[in-house]
Design brief:
Blueprint (H helix, E strand, L loop, with lengths): L1 H23 L3 H9 L14 H7 L4 H24 L3 E4 L2 E4 H18 L12 H11 L1 H18 L2 H19 L3 H17 L1 H9 L13
Antiparallel strand pairs: 1-2
């Protein structure tokens, strides 16, 4: 009975992690550029497979397809996994965590990993802002308010999307800590936020050197 129980637990954690990861792998910018436009976004601009680089490179109504793809995959991952874990307490090392809440953060970590390092696209993906922002909305309106509020304010005032993105990644674990002072949730939140900040390390260098590109509603022409 004990062995079967542990097997069930491993399947639950591993299965939901894989589900979230593979949902995250459906990168909107890569799929639209590579299979619809026949021109991989990762060969242009910053080389990043994210919304900002896609908009700067291609622009047009297909930008909304990218947004829809990256929002839906994160929302679906968080919703499914939170439902699977919901209704029961998740026990980790003798510590019990609310199942639905744990499921949201657990799915968030692996969905971001899939978005940033998609196995089907040579592990070269996006930086996780749109998907991460969706995860924040799915978790708690207070988390979303801090993450999105700071992101929008900094982006509008400075026109540096990367600066707003760094706020989003850095603030996520701290607002999560404030709303849910649970050690397991805080660790998962720091992983999520840390992944976003890590993916923006090249932007940090450009911000410090004054060479970072500012956001424009008009795409750049070759």
């Amino acid at each position: 009975m004990g062995e079967n129980w542990w097997l069930l637990i491993l399947l639950m954690y591993g299965g939901t992690a894989l589900l979230s990861y593979f949902l995250g792998c459906f990168n909107g910018a890569v799929i639209v550029s590579k299979y619809i436009l026949r021109d991989d976004v990762r060969t242009h601009g910053s080389g990043n497979a994210g919304l900002t680089n896609f908009h700067r490179t291609f622009g047009g109504p297909l930008t909304f397809v990218v947004i829809l793809c990256d929002v839906l995959k994160a929302a679906i991952a968080v919703w499914i996994v939170s439902k699977l874990f919901g209704g029961v307490g998740v026990s980790l090392f003798g510590h019990v965590v609310d199942g639905a809440l744990f499921g949201k953060y657990w799915a968030g970590v692996f969905c971001l990993l899939g978005h940033m390092f998609p196995c089907m696209f040579h592990f070269k993906g996006g930086k996780g802002i749109l998907s991460g922002g969706t995860i924040a909305i799915m978790i708690d309106w207070r988390v979303a308010l801090v993450v999105w509020g700071g992101f929008l304010l900094l982006t509008i005032l400075t026109r540096y999307v990367s600066l707003g993105s760094l706020w989003a990644g850095a603030s996520f674990p701290f607002i999560s800590w404030y709303c849910y002072p649970d050690p397991v949730i805080v660790v998962l939140a720091f992983v999520c936020g840390g992944l976003v900040v890590w993916q923006h390390r090249s932007n940090i260098k450009r911000l410090l050197s004054g060479t970072e590109n500012k956001f424009s509603l008009h795409r750049k022409h070759a």
